[in-house]
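User: Sequence in, structure out. Go.
Assistant: Echoing your sequence, followed by the C-alpha cells.
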Amino acid sequence: MIFNKQLIKDNIIINNSIIDNIQDLLKSDEFKIQHKYFFNHQIIEKYQYLQSVKLYFGTYESILESYKELLTDKQLNDELKSNLKKYTEAFKYYFKSLHKYLLLKDDNNNYIDETSRTNKLYAEFFFLIESKCGNLEYNYFNNIKGFDAVLYYKTNTFGMDTNKSIKHISKVFTNTPYMSNTYANKRHGLFRETDYMIDDNCIIDEINWVKAGFFIGKLKALVIVNQKYLNHLIGLSVLFQSISSDEEDYDIKLYFGNDIKELDAKIYTALNGKMYGSIFDHPKNDYFGYMKKILLTMHNIYHIKNNHLPIHGAMVKIEFINDTTHNVVIIGDSGAGKSESLEAFRTISSNLIKKMTIIFDDMGIFQKENSVIKAYGTEIGAFVRSDDLDTSYSINNITEAVFINTDRVNARLIIPISKYEDIIRGEKIDYVFYANNYKDMKNPIKIFESIDEAIPVFEKGERVAKGTTSEMGKVSNYFANPFGPVQMEEVTKNILRDYFESLHDDGVVFGELYTKLAISGYEVEGPRQVANKLLELFMENS
C-alpha cells in the first residue's frame, strides 16, 4: 500500500489497496495514519474534552493495541472500555467528515466491490467497539459512507517535461451526492504573469502528485495536482471536458499545491507560446475558484496573444418555435445579472422556445476566422452559487453535481450544463449586451446607436459587487474581465475595437441591460423586466 502521511488532515487516499477483513484493517497503514493524526492533532484542535483520554492512553499506539485486544476474548477493565468508547465516538464523528478517495490502476474494474468492501469493514469496526464497550453516541453503523470518489489512473510521463512518471487520472467516479468542504470560500486577487520559469522550478514527486488532462474550449490543459487538493480535480471533471487519450502535447499546464511561495497565483509564457501556471500550497488557496480561474486566465491570455477576444459573460442560442434563431451574448462580471436575466427569459418564453443551448456560462471567446467572427465556449459545466440555482435545472444535473461548502456563505455547486460539441462548434453572434446591475432605469434595455457609444461602457466594466468574490461595493475591471484582459489591457483594447467594429458592420446589435440585481427589492423583478424587453426585441427582429 502507498499512503501519503501528509494528506490525512483532510483526505484518506488509498492507492491500489485491497483490505479483505477487519484484522487487516486494524493492521493497515491507512488505519494507523488516521489514528495518529487524530490523536496527535485533532484532539488538541477540535476535541479538547478528550485530553483526559489522551493522558490515559499516552500514545495512539496504545489505542491501536486496545482495538486489537477487542478481537480476542481478553477481558478489558471498565476504565479502559470507558475511555476507548469516548475516543471512538469522537473518532467516528471525525472519520465521517473526511474526504475518502481510492486510486486504482486503469486495469482494475472492482469499483463497486472496493467501495462496498470498505463501507462494510468500517461498519464492522465500529460495531465491534459497540459490542464490547457499549453503544456509541454517534451511531453511524448503517450510515458509514464508503469512498467519495474512485479515480482510475495510468502511470506515465505524458505531458511532463521531465522523465518523472506520475499517475495520470483517466476516469473519475463519484458517490453522489458528492460534498466538498474547503478552507476558503472566496477567491481573492488577480493572477499575474512572471518571468520565473514555472515548469523548471515546481518540485513534484510520484507519490504525492497526480495529473489529468482537460479541454478548455479547444485548448488542451494538463493539471498537475498535489493530492491534498483532489477534491478540486474532481470538480474539474464536471466543469471541463476530460481528455481520455494519453496526450503528450498541451497548450496549458498548471501546478496546483506546490511549495514555492514566490510562484503563488503566477503565470508564465514560454517562448513556444505554451502557458504555465502555479498555485502555492496554502489553506487560503483551498477553493475551487482558484483552480478554475487561473486555468481560464491562462486560456484567455493565450487567445489574446493570438488576436482573439476573451468574453467574460454568458451566451445562449435561442431557437423559437417559429424557426428563428437568436444568438445572444451578455457580458458582465460576477453578480451582474447575466444568468438571472437569461433564466427569467427562459421562464417567461417557455411556450415560444423550441430549444435554448448554453454556449458559455462564464467565459467564452470571439474568434475571427476568414473575416467572420464566431463565438466559442470553454466549459461544459457551471460553477454557480446555490442561492442562484434555478428550478429549471433538471434533477439529473443536480445528481451529477459537486456541492461545495453547503453550510457556509457563498455555497456553490459545479453542475453540468452543456455538451462539448455545442461549445466548440462556433456560433454566429446576433446581439451583444452589457449587464448593468446598479442603474435604476425606466427602460430595462438601451440599444447603442454607434460603436463609439458602446465601447466605453463595455471597457469600464462597472458593477456593484454582491460579495461573491472578495470585492464589495461599486467596482470596475477593464472589459469586466480580470482574467486576461486586465493583465493585457493595451493589447485587448485594439482587439476589442477591431472585433466590435466588424460585428457592428455585420449588423450585430449592441446594447446595455439594466438588471437592477444590486438594487434592493429588484433582485427578481429586475431580471424579469429585462427578459420581457428582450422577448419584445427578438419578436420585432424575427
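User: And one key feature?
Assistant: The radius of gyration is 26 Å.
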